[in-house]
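hey can u check if this looks right to u? its 119 residues, i copy pasted from the old doc so theres a chance i mangled smth
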Amino acid sequence: MNDASMTSTPMMQVLSKFLDVTAYRQTLIAGNMANVNTPGYRTLDIDFRNELHRAMASEEEVSSFAKPVAGLIERPDGNNVSLDREGLMMAHNQLQFRAGVALLRSEFRRVASAINEGR
C-alpha cells in the first residue's frame, strides 16, 4: 500500500484521472484557438473516452494521443480551425471539469464524514 492509497479512495483516483484528461483537452482546445491564423494548422483533439480509459489503466501522467480532427472545413491557407467549434468544445469541456470537481468535493466530504463518525 503506497501513501496515495492511504489518503485517497478509488473514486478519488478515478476523478483525478478524469480531471487530468479534461485539463489536457483544455490545453488542446486553447492551442487550436491560438493557431486560428496559422497557415496549414490542423485542429487537434482526443477521443475523450479512450484517453480516460488509457489514463486509468496507467500510473503515468496523461500522455498525448491527440490527432487531427477529420471532416472539418479547410480554408484556402490549409487551416481548419473553427472558433465556433472550439468555443463549443471549450464550454462542454469546462462543464465536464466542473462536474468532476463537484464529485471530488462530494467524495472528500464523504470521507471527512466517515472520519468524524457522521458529525
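Residues 83-115 form the longest helix (33 residues).
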